[in-house]
Request: fold
Amino acid sequence: MNFPYLTLITFAPLIGAGLVLLLPKSADKTIKIVSLLASLFSFGLALCIWSQFRPDAGLQFVERAAWIPTLHVDYYLGVDGLSITMVLLTGLITPLALLAHWNQDRSVKLFFFLFLLLEAGMFGVFTALNFFHWFIFWEIGLIPMFFLIRIWGAEERTYASFKFFLYTLAGSVGMLLAFGFIYLATGSFDFVQLREIAQTGELGRAIGVLVGDINKTTGLHLTAECFANILFWATFLGFAIKVPIWPFHTWLPDAHTQAPTGGSMLLAAVLLKMGVYGFLRVVLPIFPDEVAINLNILLFLSVASIVFGAYAALGQTDFKRVVAYSSVNHMGYAMLGIFAAAAAAPSVKDLVNEKAAALNGAVLQMFNHGISSAALFFMVGCIYERTHTRKLAEYGGLRKIMPVYAGILGVSMFSSLGLPGLNGFVGEFMVFKGAFPVVPWAALVSLIGLVVTGVFLLLMMQKVCFGPLNEKWKSLPDMTGREIFIVAVLMVFMFGIGVYPGPLLDASNHAVVNLVKLFERTPEIMLTLVR
Amino acid sequence: MEHAEHLNHLASQQWLIPFFPLVAAAIQSLLKKPARKLSATLTIGAMGISCAFALRAFFATLGGGHHEEVARGIANFTWFKFGTTSLDLGFVLDPLTAGMAAMVTFVGFWIFVNATGYMHDDENFTRFFCFLSLFAASMLGLVVSNNLLLLFMCWELVGLCSYLLIGFWYFKPSAAAAMKKAFITTRVGDVGFFIGILMLYQHTGTLNLYTAEGTGALQQAGGLATLTGWWGLSVAGTIALMLFIGAMGKSAQFPLHVWLPDAMEGPTPVSALIHAATMVAAGVFMVGRMFPVFTAGAGDWVMDFVMWVGCITAVFSATIAVAQFDIKRVLAYSTCSQLGFMVMALGAGGFVAGQFHLLTHAFFKALLFLGSGCVIIGTHHEQDMRKMGGLKKYMPITFWCYFTGYLALSGFPLTAGFFSKDEVLLETFHHNKAAWGLATFAAFLTAFYMTRQMYMVFAGKWRGGEESHHGHGHAHDDHGHGHGGHEPNEVPWNMWLPIAVLSIFALFMGWLGTPWFHDNLFHHYLAPEEHSPEHSNLVLWLSIGVGLFGIFLGWLIYGRKTMEHATDADPLAVKLGGLFTALNRKWYIDELYEATIIRLTMALGVFFRAVDKAVVDGILHAIAWVAWGISQVVRLVGDDLIINGSFDAGCDGVRGSGRILAKLQNGRVQNYLRVMAVGVVLLLVVYFVK
Reply:
């Protein structure tokens, strides 16, 4: 057994949360420091495993112990190229989100407690390799976020928090049932094992047997393909709501807009990635045939997220809602890259590398969006703290009195826009580079989104920072040192990845190539699968 | 062989050319207090060093003069790896790059010097020079790049700098609108560029243009011509068309030209550097860089398309320039028009003619824009030509420099513009007579509107000061070189010296590309493997003729009797009536876009917002209501019916997401945990049943 890095990463925030509970309610400062240290401890460990991570190997830092033997459930942790960047991202964003609330004075204890709980949930999702405890972590993330929105949210917090909670929960129920059936068919909750038997076709056969039993007892006439498809869509829905993919996205603008700044940062930067990650870890490996069969619908939904998301962002009048909708748009690019990897395009030469480009781009896009959306939400929070309004029409000319703010907002905005030299460009380019030869129509239609993204972001920038100064704000202070520090950390990543994306792509490449290979099987095997 | 190795060695140092301005920009972005001296020194110094490196590279490429083929140094490297391959980038040194880099650094250097004067009193002096440095870095990166992706990245950064500098006086609503317009319009073109890149990458497997092994994208261009692309084109043709759409955005070709005139909201040195001499030429440069792809699909209609877009732009913008009153707007439309000439030449197959006109135009248009900047400063921020007049008396140095630029642009015999424009017309003549005819008409218009401008600005009597004007709105009023009332005065040396230097080039640079001199030196330098176009006396004399006729007509209308008062009607407006208004309003293209594309885009935004609110959320709320209703019914029918409470919990889980249910918030977590528990129980049951 190696040193249990992943367990420590995951449980350090929980221990921190426990400590916070023990502290007296009035010890605000101590609570904040303890929370920050706990999250920094996890971040330190995340950096540790990042530095030891071998890009050319599969699962690493594996921890495995029998947990519920009767159910064959193991406590099974590990990271590979798909999750290592997400662990790093979670570790990075949480302390920054905590710092963003350093001046919080309302119910500090509960607030920081919930934050740490949330962090543990996120780490758990990205490190777990067994559905059983993976799902527990997946759901744990919901509770603190619900309260963060419900208690510290803005004016519409009740509606937003319930919508977020119920919607996501409803999505998970279907997924839970689907995995119940898969377990029934295979006796396994193990992602790695499920992936292997899906690859050999055993999973299809097992589902066929299960469907036979169901038909016998119920008198239905389900076919194996149909049933596998139902399982796929149930799982899809759970993840699609989380990503969110159009049209399951309307919880997002409400939740993001109403959540407190740090909550929005974590929601956008990390929680959405749990959905995308689910597609990489669960959907593609376990349902490769169903993805291939439904590919056109899936591609349409991705393209719709990109294009409709961008247009909807353009129609917003609320600063934070614009940023929120940009997430729908940006996650669409990641989904496009992921589904492109499942497409059959025998005429394309060098297909594996094209798909590898698309998937690498999607993984990078996940990280990049984490950086830029966290920065943008933080910037919205900064200005909201000062003006107590989010209406774009009420700003104007802020660059005059807050030049530092305007400069940083500009950098974050261009990072989100995908300007070369900043992080966003590399991911988007790779997604398109791979998607264009494989699924040309989807890539071409998505390019509309690229223009509209530019339009709404620049319009947003213009309304906030340019034009004549709104006299109401003429005495607003510029950003404080703490605030600058938070974005400066993010900006280091924006520039760093934009110029030198190599390390991140190296990290994901091995896992990505293996995923692509799942879609390379010979038709004979596919045929037996369908049978 | 030794020479080739030397070039490769120099190519591996090409990154130094954009590096120095980049460092200068980085340092200045961190300067907190306004440090004018330091800032100007850094910017100009870095550009000077870059210029030295560019010239070193330039002279090295001259050695290839006797070869039959273009001598080219290449330095490629890997950016990152993916799959089983890698994405490579690279730098190149060949005549095209070397000439362009030398021009950009040299012209840029003098523009920076001029800018120290123009921006003398601006409170954001440091930031301005920071942006200028960043611009220079991006533009030079674009020029020395041996990779289409690297070129595109610099291309976008150049667009960013343009955005930042157009909006330098961001507090003006017009500037705030113009900066956005420029970025978005060019981005529309960039989508085409992007598709071109993706196609090229797909079919050649590399984006490096040249490699030593001969596997570069351009070296494979011939193979692309044999594959079938879109719209009856070969793949090479399709790629060329897509790349050209990008060039149309950047080089302000009709119908994507609308951003360029609005870009005059930026400070005048910006107009000179970005919107006349260098950035807008990037589109033309890119087409030149990718020329093997354009010519590969010989049977394709792409080249004709390129030529006609250029031709239409040349004529179209020239007509608009005739009816403008803003000194910078006239020049802006003339830039559009001249870019049209270059593009037309490229479309006619005249690679050298297009690039040559690009180079000469850069010098004399930078001169004209800087000259107009001098005029604007000299007249204390007046841009309306009707309120100028008689400046020859007040600003003699500016006048004489401006005059040389005017001659060059009008194509007056033996000036730089004359030779390059003649080459352009000659190429077009050999290719398509109709386009040549239209272009000759555009050349006539050019001479005419420039004469109009000369007379309005420099001749007659000073018409300013008739009414008070407060022009710009930025703090320029306490200007350093005392102004007696509103009398114009000559600008300081740091403003006139650059235009004096540039005017030498505007006068004499054309001799490099004349057929009378060593059978066209420039042609041999840039494309030694092909012959320069056959000379034609008809083209030559007609070109001279229309130029002189334009000047004559300008004198007839504007020179014989100069304007008396700023409020006088333009004599041409009296004659042309409604047509003049249409020209003045730029053929109502902006209004057309406003009424169609822009309105549609904004309407779609509102539409999709409404769809989310009404349809998507509507369905969601309906589901929530139904679920809530069922759970109510079930509860009324009887809780006892429910065996293990799972049903209840399930209903709770999904019911009601509306505000109405807010009061039910308590107990949610318990419900949640119940669902979890039920799930676990369910799984256990399932397990044991099995």
